[in-house]
Amino acid sequence: MPKVSDLKIGYIPQEFTLISGNIRENVAFGSDIIDDERVIKALKQAQLYDFIEENYSNGIYEAPFADSSGISQGQKQRLAIARALYFEPDILIMDEGTSSLDLITEDKICDTLENLKGNKTIIVIAHRLSTIKSADKIIFIKDGEITGNASFEELIKTNSDFEELVRLSDISKSN
Questions:
Q1: What is the CATH number of domain 4-136?
Q2: How far is CA 127 from CA 3, 60, 77, 104, 138, in A?
Q3: Could you read off the pLDDT of 71-124 as tens digits, one per residue?
């Protein structure tokens, strides 16, 4: 077990700032040496690599960000995910990290997170219940108070407020 001071933390914010460099420089921002294979792996995990390959002739060396018009908010969010995953963190914190994604892409990102289970501690702050559905543990907060702490299924059974949110969002109980 690594010491707390040795743990790497990846953070995926809701609002993501691009730098004026190319895609690979945006993914590896803060790294002294850029590993293209890790950039590509992170972009694949973030469900963005295929889009880049199909739309940019220079691939990860393309710089479509000069005025940010070359990339959507959802693609920016996936770049934020790729940036966090590039550094292979021990702890991954997502603060509404899928809020700008369409539901199909969000589902694929949730699959990526599911595949990281057991290898990383993942903390997800989300309003979309679909993002947290497969979490091992959900801490449900209402009016600033913790009113539940259980799995998705258990919270449905034991917390009427959570059950109501699930009913309103029309999420089925099975995976």
A1: 3.40.50.300
A2: 32, 32, 16, 17, 12
A3: 778 888 889 999 999 999 999 998 987 787 888 888 888 888 888 888 888 898
Residue 160 CA to residue 164 CA, distance in Å, equals 6
Six-digit token string for 64: 């479509």
- On whether the pTM is more than 0.70, the answer is yes
**Which two structure tokens, joined as six digits, stand for 92?**
């991954």
d(CA 28, CA 35): 8
Tokens of 61: 């060396």
The alpha carbons of the chain give a radius of gyration, in whole angstroms, of: 17
In this model, does residue 70 exceed pLDDT 70?
no
User: Alpha helices of 20-128 — where are they, by DSSP H?
Assistant: 23-27, 36-45, 49-55, 73-86, 103-116
